[in-house]
Design goal:
The chain is mostly helical. Helix content is 75%, strand content 0%. It is built from 12 helices and no strands. The two termini are 38 Å apart. Its main location: membrane.
Length: 276
């Protein structure tokens, strides 16, 4: 009985912590997004005296010539392109790393791991992108996002790849399959669990990225959703009701993605770690 009580106590503490860490800030953003400018400036969690939902939404969407709409398009394009490149490049790299064992393999693994350890450098990256003509372009920012996520995705794919028997490769080669046909026709479909994990986690990360678009993709026409927060903040005046409504609108897509695919994330991470 004491063990059950102890377990129940731990679960209760975990629930309370999740409420305090996640739901209370979300509630704070939600209630202030419904207020007018005067009430929202008080920054309290009190329910608004009058609801200004649609008026605030309209102001946020139409601000600066519908900048939020352009930002959603830019963020969606950036996320989709980065995920497509990330999945194919990392899956192929992991296949080669897992199947090929020679004296170069430890060095390749070392450099992939180094990508998780070495922090990115802003100024040299801007210099390189500007030198090759990719600064302030979608191709350049996609390259940056892929480079930052390639190490984690490759290692996750490699661990999961270890659970796929080599006999499949041998049988396919004996039947006349080439390298690309073997990978795209047989190996890649078997990677669906870990692919779902990488797609969801990387999509949320890239969609919510603030720093990289700020440095490598500047300009009002290139703004992503996180950069639209500047529309309602200034040195002297901040429209908190519109700011919180903006936060609420740009939080909904990744939040829904995470909620609906949470089980797939856990399944892919667990399968990769246990079978690897």
């Amino acid at each position: 009985m004491s063990r059950k009580l102890r377990t129940f106590g731990i679960e209760a503490v975990a629930v309370l912590l999740s409420v305090a860490i996640f739901w209370v800030p979300l509630y704070f953003v939600f209630v202030n997004a419904l207020k007018d400018s005067k009430e929202a400036s008080e920054l309290t969690i009190d329910w608004p005296s009058s609801i200004h939902l649609w008026s605030n939404v309209k102001e946020v969407v139409t601000a600066r010539d519908f900048m939020l709409v352009r930002a959603f398009y830019n963020s969606a394009a950036l996320t989709v392109l980065s995920i497509v490149v990330l999945v194919f490049v990392c899956a192929m790299a992991a296949f080669v790393m897992q199947r090929r064992q020679d004296r170069f393999t430890p060095w390749i693994t070392f450099f992939v791991l180094a990508g998780l350890i070495i922090p990115p450098s802003i100024v040299p990256t801007i210099w390189v992108l500007d030198g090759i003509g990719l600064f302030k372009t979608m191709t350049g920012i996609v390259s940056v996002e892929v480079a930052l996520g390639i190490s984690f995705a490759t290692l996750l794919y490699r661990n999961f790849m270890a659970s796929i028997p080599r006999e499949i490769d041998e049988a396919a080669i004996m039947d006349g399959c080439g390298g690309f046909r073997l990978f795209f026709g047989m190996i890649l479909p078997l990677l669906q669990p870990v692919t779902a994990t990488i797609v969801v986690t990387s999509s949320v990360t890239i969609f919510n990225d603030f720093t990289n678009p700020l440095y490598f993709f500047p300009g009002s026409k290139n703004a992503t959703v996180q950069l639209t927060l500047y529309n309602f903040m200034s040195q002297f005046v901040s429209q908190y009701n519109l700011l919180f409504m903006n936060i609420l609108l740009i939080t909904i897509p990744p939040l829904l993605l995470f909620i609906f695919f949470n089980k797939k994330i856990v399944a892919g991470m667990t399968a990769g770690s246990v079978k690897g």
